[in-house]
Amino acid sequence: MRCFYDADEQIDLWGKYLAGKLSAIYGEQAAAVVLFVSSEYTAQDWTRLERRAALSRAVRERQEYVLPARFDDTALPGRRRQRRPGPRAWSRSRPTVAV
Fold first, then answer.
1. Would you say 46 and 19 are in contact if contact means Cβ atoms under 8 Å apart?
2. Could you give the angle at the alpha carbon of 62 between the alpha carbons of 60 and 35, nearest 5°?
């Protein structure tokens, strides 16, 4: 399994049209997309484009493709808060430190 992490791909992405490249990765090429939702995630410029591409594919193909993992209580823009559990399951994660 290959994992795409943009910080590891800086040389390959250098000079590329990122809107097109990232949309292709998250909306066409990936087998699944894990969204690590946190205050840092929502503050980034490119995460909205990545999220839209991934969700578009998930809706189009009607399958489990987007795997959200929440790391704090930050609200995800565009996601309505639900009183009851909705159709999408969220993984609730907390960083751990081994001592």
1. no
2. 85
Tokens of 48: 């909205």
- Residue 26 and residue 35: Cα distance in Å, rounded? 11
Question: Among the residues of the chain, which ranges form H helices?
Answer: 10-13, 18-24, 39-43, 47-61
- Domain residue limits, the chain: 6-76
| pTM: predicted TM-score of the whole model, two decimal places | 0.69
DSSP code, position 98: -
pLDDT digits (tens, 9 = 90+) for 77-92: 665 554 444 445 555 5
Burial string for 8-21 (b: 16+ CB within 10 Å, else e) reads: eeeeeeeeeeeeee
Q: Apex CA 46: angle with CA 25 and CA 43, to 5°?
A: 140
Task: Determine contact, residues 70/93, Cβ cutoff 8 Å.
Answer: yes
